[in-house]
Each structure stands twice: as C-alpha cells, then as structure tokens.
C-alpha cells in the first residue's frame, strides 16, 4: 500500500520555519522534603543547575557506575591542599567538569582560595545558565575534618 503526502502547504523545502522555544530546567530537590500534597519539591532553572553543578563537583571519579571519568573529584584535593596542588589545578578540574558534564551551564569564573593553616579551600564558581542567561554563583568549602 503506497502512502500519499499532501502538498497543500506548498514546497516544504522553500518554507522557513521559525521557532521560539523556551527551555525550562527541572530537577528533584535533593533534600527530599515532602510537600503538603505528598510530592517532593522540585528545583527549576537556575536553582536546578546550581544543585547539579554542586553535586557534579563533589562527585568523585569512579563513583558513578559505568562512567569512571564523571565528576569533579574535588575530594581528591582534601589531603594535599598544602602539598603538590595549587589553585590552578583545582580551577582546571572544575572548568573541565562543567564543560564536559553540565551542558546547561557556561562557566564564567572560578575563584579558589587555599588556606593551608586550616587545611581548607574556599571555592566560588560563577556560571551562566544557558536558557535564561542568568548568572549564578556556587560556593563550596573543602575542609578536612580530623
């Protein structure tokens, strides 16, 4: 049985289609607090991307099954903050992780402040959400607990 296609709209190869599509990002809130309806809360747009970046950077290599290179692996720096690593090593790892595994964000700036006396590193990641062009900052603190 042959199918016939209608050409009522004219030649489709000459028609230009313009679309304005707004992308909304949604994730589950990882606190898993229940709403009064019994459902869990959701994070949208910038809050969803911010949560995803924080989780990405704190995920260690080989922690996600079948994706050994996934994550930022920042916990690797905890015991060598005062040793062989410096701010540039941490910055490069963060930029690479966001570029490779978070397509919803564009990394704009990474600030790393290592405090050797406290075995601590304060990190600020500034990124832009692709769909809304909103600029958001994530603050992380790597601290070794004794």
Describe it.
This protein has about 150 residues and is α+β, with helices and mostly antiparallel strands. The chain has a domain at about 55-145: Nuclear Transport Factor 2, Chain: A (Roll), CATH 3.10.450. About 20% of the residues lie in helices and about 25% in strands. It contains two helices and five strands; from the N terminus they run E-E-H-H-E-E-E. It has a three-stranded antiparallel sheet with strand order 3-4-5. Strands 1-2 form a two-stranded antiparallel ribbon. It is globular, with a radius of gyration of 22 Å. The chain starts with about 25 loop residues before the first strand and ends with a strand. Residues about 5 have low confidence and may be disordered.
What is this structure's SSE topology?
Elements: E1 26-28, E2 42-44, H1 45-58, H2 87-101, E3 105-115, E4 120-129, E5 135-143
Antiparallel strand pairs: 1-2, 3-4, 4-5
β-strand number: 5
- Order of the strands making up the biggest sheet: 3-4-5
The helix content, as a percent range, equals 10-25%
What fold name goes in the CATH topology slot of the domain at 53-143? Nuclear Transport Factor 2, Chain: A
């Amino acid at each position: 049985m042959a199918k016939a296609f209608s050409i009522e709209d004219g030649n489709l190869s000459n028609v230009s289609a313009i679309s304005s599509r707004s992308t909304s990002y949604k994730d589950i809130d990882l606190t898993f607090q229940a709403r009064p309806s019994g459902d869990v809360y959701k994070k949208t747009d910038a809050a969803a991307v911010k949560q995803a970046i924080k989780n990405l950077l704190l995920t260690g290599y080989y922690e996600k099954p079948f994706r050994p290179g996934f994550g930022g692996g920042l916990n690797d720096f905890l015991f060598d903050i005062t040793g062989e690593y410096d701010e540039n090593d941490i910055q490069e790892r963060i930029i690479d992780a966001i570029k490779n595994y978070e397509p919803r964000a564009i990394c704009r700036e990474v600030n790393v402040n290592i405090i050797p006396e406290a075995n601590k590193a304060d990190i600020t990641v500034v990124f832009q959400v692709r769909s809304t062009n909103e600029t958001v900052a994530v603050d992380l603190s790597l601290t070794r607990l004794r």
